Amino acid sequence: MGAGAARGVDGMTTVAGGVRAHARIVARADGRGGTALPVLDGEGPLALRRTRGSGAEARVVLVGAMSGPLGGDHFTVEAEAADGALLRVGSAAATIALPGQHKGEARYDVRLSVADGGELHWLPEQLISARGSDLHVTTRVEVGATGRLVLREEQVLGRAGEEPGRLGSRIRVRVAGRVVLDQELSCGPGAPGGWDGPAGLGGLRAVGQLVVVRPEFADAPVAARMLGETAAVMPLAGPAVLVSAAARDALRLRRVLDEALECVG
After folding, report:
1. Sorted alphabetically, which Pfam families does this protein's record hold (predicted)?
2. Which of 32, 106, 145, 181 could bridge to 73 as Cys pair (CB 3.0-4.6 Å)?
3. For residues 56 and 32, is the Cβ–Cβ distance under 8 A?
4. What pLDDT, on the 0 to 100 scale, is given for residue 15?
5. What single string gives the DSSP state of each residue in the chain?
C-alpha cells in the first residue's frame, strides 16, 4: 500500500485524495434450477446484501453504507452472470454525488459481464448530482452472443431547487466482442456549451438510458420510434436496443423508462 494510504476496518482504502472502495458479485447456476452467489464481496460504502428473489433469480441490493461518492473518491462495482445464471442487482436508495473536502473529481466505475446463456438486470436507483460535486461515471459491459441484459441508468441534475454539480458519464456495451453502444454525456458547470439548451436537455433535470440486449433482436430488431416528446427507442447495430429519455424529475423519468421496457418486450 502506498504512502498516505490506510486500510479501513471493512477493507476500504482511504488515501489523501479520498476513498477507494470495490465491490464484486459473481452469479452462477447452482445445478438445481437456481442461481448461486459464490462471490458477494463489498467494502466500505459499497455494502452488498442478498435479498429474496423469484424463481431462478438471485437478487442483490447495493446498500450505501457511507455518504458518497465525494470529491476524490473512486468506487468500482463489478457484476458477472455466468452461463445459466439470472442475476438482478438494484440499490437501496439513490446515490448522491457530493463535493466533500477534496476538490478532485470523483469516479464511479461499473463493470458488467454476461456470459453466453447468462442474464443480468442492472437496475440501480437514481444518481443525484448535488451542487458543487464533480463525478465521472463509466459503465463497461461485455455480453456473450446468447447473453441477455437489461441496464438502466438514471441521473438527476441537482436536488430540489438546486443547481447541479459537474457530471460526466460514459456507457460502452459490447456484444460477442462487437461494440454496439459507446455513448458519453456531460452536464453541469464546465460541461460543453449547449448541454442545457434547446439542442440538449432544454431545462429538464432528469435524464436516463435503458439498454436491452436479447438474442432474438438479431432476427427481429425493435423498430425506432418516439415515446412522447422527450424519449426515443433506437435499435442498435446488434441484438440490442437503446431508450434515451429526459424528464422534469426522477419520478417522471422512471415512469417513461418502465413503459419503454414494457414496449420493447
Report:
1. UreD
2. 106
3. no
4. 53
5. --TT-EE-TTS-EEETTEEEEEEEEEEEE-SSSSEEEEEEE-BTTEEEEEE---TTEEEEEEEE-SS-PPTT-EEEEEEEE-TT-EEEEEESS-EEE---S--SPEEEEEEEEE-TT-EEEEE---EEE-TT-EEEEEEEEEE-TT-EEEEEEEEEESSTT----EEEEEEEEEETTEEEEEEEEEESTTSPTTTTSTTTTTT--EEEEEEEE-GGGGTSPPPPEE-SSSEEEEE-SSSEEEEEEEESSHHHHHHHHHHHHHHT-
d(C-alpha 182, C-alpha 236), whole Å: 11
C-alpha cell at 61: 441490493
Tens of pLDDT, residues 131-158: 999 999 999 999 999 999 999 999 999 9
Q: If you write DSSP's letter for every residue of 53-102 in order, what string do you get?
A: --TTEEEEEEEE-SS-PPTT-EEEEEEEE-TT-EEEEEESS-EEE---S-
Write down the pTM of the prediction.
0.91
User: In degrees rounded to 5, what are phi and psi of residue 12?
Assistant: -70, 140
Euclidean distance between CA atoms 23 and 108, whole angstroms: 11
- 260 — phi, psi (to 5°)? -65, -40
CB count within 10 Å of CB 19 equals 24
- Tell me the pairing of strands 127-129 and 148-157: parallel
